[in-house]
Amino acid sequence: MENKADWQDPEERNLIRREAREERRDRSLPKSRRCSWCGGGPLMKSRQWVVVNDWVGCRSCWTRRGILVPTKKEPINVNLAVFKDPKTKYVIEGGSLAHCREQVGKSQGEFASIAGWSRQYQSKLENGGVKTVSDEVRNTILAVFERIGVRSSDQLR
Fold it and tell me: Which domains does the chain have, with CATH numbers?
């Protein structure tokens, strides 16, 4: 006969909850153990996966996505004067990003929390600490402006 769990013991309670959480995570993982977004893998350990609502992906996709925007979507067609030369590489114009952010009435912290990164990183983007950005960061910035309701520079105050 098995001993019943001692729910009064915090360590045992946490262990039981952790095991149940990992079991639920394992049930929701794809059978191939490959990430459906990036195709990476196979990832065998359940802690290498992130499960949020209906979305399941590897940790690297989770950190690259920033906000819940699929990385495989086409870039949003937003005409903002934020990037100097979007044809070759994404050189960010920090002053323009700060101006656009201020025009929509968001603070650095608010904009950063919507984008899914820290206020310090937002400050580096605006003050020239970061010169170029990846495609994912560019798409995230444009997605945040779209989420706020700005689709072109004409909509700024």
Answer: 10-65 (no CATH), 76-155 (1.10.260.40)
Q: Are 58 and 41 in contact (CB under 8 A)?
A: yes
Q: Model confidence over 40-80: pLDDT tens digits?
A: 666 666 666 676 666 667 767 766 655 444 444 444 555 55
Core vs surface per residue 127-144: b (16+ CB within 10 A) or e: eeeeeebeeebbbbbbbb
First to last CA, the chain: 72
Residue 143: C-alpha distances to residues 18, 58, 89 (Å): 34, 22, 18
Closest CA to 42 of 53, 64, 24, 58: 58
111-138 residue pLDDT tens: 888 888 888 988 988 888 888 887 778 8
Can you give 42-91 as a three-state secondary structure string? CCCCHHHEEEECCEEEEHHHHHHHCCCCCCCCCCCCCECCCECCCCCCEE
Q: Are 59 and 48 in contact (CB under 8 A)?
A: yes
